[in-house]
Each structure stands twice: as C-alpha cells, then as structure tokens.
Write a structure and sequence with these properties.
This protein is an alpha/beta fold and about 525 residues long. It contains 25 helices and twelve strands.
Length: about 525
C-alpha cells in the first residue's frame, strides 16, 4: 500500500492531474458519486497511435485516482462519427467511394473496406478492437447514436435558448466572411444527406426548429433527434455538459478550441472539466501525425516490433513535449523500458512513483532479470544470422548457459521482436563505413589485441583492451570516434551497446572473424 504522504508529495504527472481533478471538481463529483473522464476520436481516418496515447494516458490518470479515492471512475471514448467527411485519407482503398460521399456524416459514408455498414462504423470497430487488445476499461459512445436517440435533445434545446450568447463567444474568433454564414447548428440535408454549413435565417424556439438559408431557399429543420449536428467547439461543450465530464486531455492544437468550449459550457450552466493539453506526435520529418495522411508509425507496426508495454512507456514520458514517432524510436524505447525495470529494483516508494514503468504496469512492475539490451540483441541478430528464436537463444545461452526460456517470458518475446525489427527496419538502413588506411590499421591492431584475450575475461576486461587499442592508434583524445569507427565498420551504425559486453555474448573467436570479414569485404 502506498504511503499517503508520498502520494501527496509526488510530482508524477498522473498523480498531479488526479489531485487536480479532485480539487477542481470536488463538488460535482461528490454530487453524482462518479468521476467521468472523456477521450475523443474523429473517425474520418483509421485510428492512429495518437488516439491510443490519449486513452493510455487517461487510463494512467484513472490508476492514480484509484490510489486517492474509492469513488467509481469511467472513461468515455467518444466517437464524433456524425461529423461530415471533409478529406479523403491517403491510406484508404476504393477512394472513389469516399469521393462520391464527401460531406456526408461518417456513418452515412459507405465502408471502402466493404466490411461494415459505413466508413464511420468501420473505424469505430478498429478503434474498439485495438483498445480491447490493450485491455483498456472504457465505455464507447457514438455521436450518431446519441444525437439520433434523443440523448442530446435536452442540451440542444438549452443551446438553442442560449443561441445569442454562444454566438457572442464564437463570432469574434472568426474572419469577416465566415461571420456572415456561421451557425452553431448544422442541418442534415434531406435530399443529399450531407452536413450543410449554411446561415440561420430564423429561429422558432417554441418548436425547437431553425429555418436555414440554403442557397436562397428556406430549409426548415428540427434541431432534435439527429436532424442537425453542432459545430465542433459547441459540440465539444455539449458533450461535457450532457455527459457530465470531469476530465479530458487534448492536443496542444486544440487549446484555443478548449478555451471557447469552456466558455460555452459555463453559459449552459455547468463548470468546465479539468483539462490537460499534451504536445503533438510528429513523424520523422517533424510533421504532425494525421489520420488522413496515415504518416508516422502505426500501432500495428509498433506491436510488430516491440511489446505493448514499451508503447505505453513512450506515451507516459514527457506528455508536454513534442515527440517524433518513427520506426527507429522503437528500439530506443525498448531499452529505456528495460532500464526503468532495473532501476525499480532498488527504488523506494517515492522514487517508484516517478518511475514510468510503475505507471505502465499500474504498480505491478515485473521482477524479471534483464539479460541484455535490445540494441545488443539486434547486433546479435545480424552477426549470428539468426532467422529463428531458437538460433538466437543458442547464442544468448553461450553467455548465460543455465537460463531457460520459460523463466524469462519478457526477454523471450524480445528475442522474437528483435529478429523482425532487424529484418524490417535496420537491415534496410545500414550503411557500412569503408575505413581509410589509418583506420584499417587501427582495426587490425584491435584484432591483434583481441587475439591475445581469452574467453575467461570479463566484459569489463575486454572493454579495457578495446580502449587500449584506440589509445595506441591515435584516438587517445577522442575515444568516442574510436568506438564510432568500430560500430560503422562492423555493424553499419554510428553507435550501439558496449563492445566488451557484445563480445562476451557473441564470443571472442566469432568477433575476431567478424571484424576480419568486414575489413576484407571493404
């Protein structure tokens, strides 16, 4: 059991947010006897890793809340599937199907994958599938269903009755031309089924209807039962009000929207939820990851190369700092994951709460011994030419002869990931350096020194001999360049694990032959 004083003092961000929720929303939470946290998803494209991140991080806040209060908690994953399709995603088949149905609600657009009734339903199911695979606890809510079944009706009437006040909030933020046509309510066209962005001509409050100017013709629509939907910022405020949301995190790009939605929900008569703005995910070019572009690494790709826990770690760390998300980041994160597990074995409670893997594993950190780093394992895949886990395990057991796979389930999975990651990612990007005469001479001297070593030497002793070789061959003042030379010539990368440890795993004789082979081939 965690010490309450330690919980109060920790600045681990999930606990900071949890304490903020209880402070800011105390009156409302006690009244309803429940804490409601919301995550949003726009199904205009396939779910991407940022969507996962929002649910994962919100779940970490729930875990922190569980240590602070016994009040029930619920995560609502809300899909804005009544939104009109405005762009054609790049990573979708049968684009002509989508082109023909632009501006229709996503649940009215045929599924280009031909698996579900609509594109919106397809993407909703993809979202639920991967959330279920991670065993997240959440309640799924569909915008289409809540509009159509009347759940939002009472709040929609409230918004209509506060039409002018809401317009006063939104209009100053718009350009002059947009101000002329803006309406919080977007009618669904009875003929085309498209979501129309047209100006309001007259409001009939008693009947909960609006007459819109549809290209010079009157279009009278009820605002109830899915006949209209709301513009984004008003819609967001409506959700907070109708679902009684206490907390929601959102990307930095939505801060201005959140400010306006906060004002609107207060106009409606409720306090805004506690918020948390996180930085965006970027691809390797520094561009924002987008559902419509399909850029950056996907969830399926990450899980092909590394464990779900490593992905959760990536999401936990520095949520207020922009992160690049591409294939090469996976191996780095896996090594960080194992490093944090090792640190946890010597940490007290206050230190553990600041350890990311405590939050990844909800306090139940694995005790498994870490045999070697992922980066070292990747080098072992290359040098051993291992194509199967059995072969790679044989090399590992040369260094740790008495271990059994069944006792190291985390490492056993990592062995499989390493083979796949090496073949798919590293093999495609390797660039082996051709050493000049002086560099070649230095590496041959390294071979000579290694030939004088024996298999009984510790990794540290071997590492010392490698230092000696560098110092004796012009690298005394810059040993970093010496190791970089070894990595680039032997492994085709600029850096890697400690060479002494790698040699202990791979074997002295095998390493000597490997270096000779690389020098011979260049």
């Amino acid at each position: 059991m965690l010490d309450k004083e330690i919980i109060e003092k920790t600045n681990a961000w999930p606990f900071v947010e949890a304490k903020k929720i209880l402070k800011e929303r105390n009156k409302y939470i006690n009244k309803k006897g429940k804490i409601i946290l919301q995550t949003g998803y726009g199904p205009s494209g396939l779910p991407h890793i940022g969507t996962f991140g929002e649910v994962a991080r919100t779940s970490m806040v729930v875990n922190a809340l569980n240590y602070l209060t016994d009040i029930p908690k619920e995560i609502i994953t809300f899909s804005d599937d009544m939104d009109g399709l405005r762009k054609i995603p790049d990573n979708i088949p049968n684009k002509e199907v989508l082109i023909k149905n632009l501006n229709k609600p996503l649940t009215k657009v045929p599924d280009p994958f031909e698996k579900y009734k609509s594109f919106g339903e397809h993407n909703n199911e993809m979202l639920k599938k991967f959330l279920n695979n991670f065993d997240f606890k959440y309640s799924f809510k569909s915008s289409t269903e809540l509009y159509s079944n009347g759940f939002f009706n009472e709040t929609l009437v409230l918004i209509l009755n506060n039409f002018e006040k809401i317009m006063d909030i939104i209009i100053p933020t718009l350009g002059k031309e947009r101000q002329k046509t803006y309406s919080p309510f977007l009618p669904i066209c009875p003929k085309t089924q498209k979501v129309l962005e047209i100006p309001v001509k007259e409001i009939i409050s008693k009947e909960n209807k609006i007459i819109f100017d549809n290209s010079g013709k009157d279009l009278e629509k009820s605002i109830l039962d899915g006949n209209c939907k709301l513009q984004w910022k008003v819609d967001w405020a409506m959700r907070w009000y109708a679902l009684d949301v206490d907390f929601e995190m959102y990307g930095k790009d939505l801060i201005e929207s959140a400010i306006l939605s906060n004002k609107i929900v207060r106009v409606l008569g409720k306090s805004n939820p506690s918020g948390f703005a996180y930085e965006l995910f970027l691809d390797d070019k520094g561009e924002k990851i987008s559902k419509s572009k399909g850029n950056g690494i996907t969830i399926d790709q990450w899980l092909k190369y590394a464990s779900p826990e490593s992905l959760s770690l990536f999401m936990y760390q520095n949520p207020k700092r922009a992160k690049k998300l591409y294939n090469e980041i996976v191996s780095k994160t896996v090594d960080e994951y194992f490093g944090f597990i090792e640190k946890s074995k010597k940490q007290d409670q206050s230190q553990l709460l600041l350890n990311p893997v405590w939050h990844v594993h909800n306090g139940n950190i694995p005790k498994e011994e870490i045999i070697m780093s992922f980066s070292m394992l990747l080098n072992l895949v290359e040098t051993s030419n291992a194509e199967t886990k059995d072969i790679l395990w044989k090399f590992v057991k040369k260094y740790k002869p008495n271990i059994e796979e069944k006792n190291f389930p985390i490492f056993d999975r990592m062995v499989g990931y390493a083979i796949t990651y090496f073949n798919d990612v590293i093999k495609q990007t390797k660039k082996y350096k051709k050493p000049d005469d002086n560099e070649n001479k230095a590496l041959l001297q390294l071979v000579k020194i290694l030939e004088g070593c024996n298999e009984n030497m510790t990794p540290e002793d071997i590492q010392t001999q490698i230092y000696t070789a560098g110092k004796e061959n012009g690298y005394k003042e810059n040993l970093r360049e010496w190791f970089k030379l070894i990595y680039e010539v032997v492994f085709g990368v600029e850096n890697g694990p400690r060479i002494g440890f790698f040699i202990s795993f791979f074997g002295l004789k095998e390493t000597i032959n490997l270096i000779k082979e690389k020098l011979k081939n260049v």
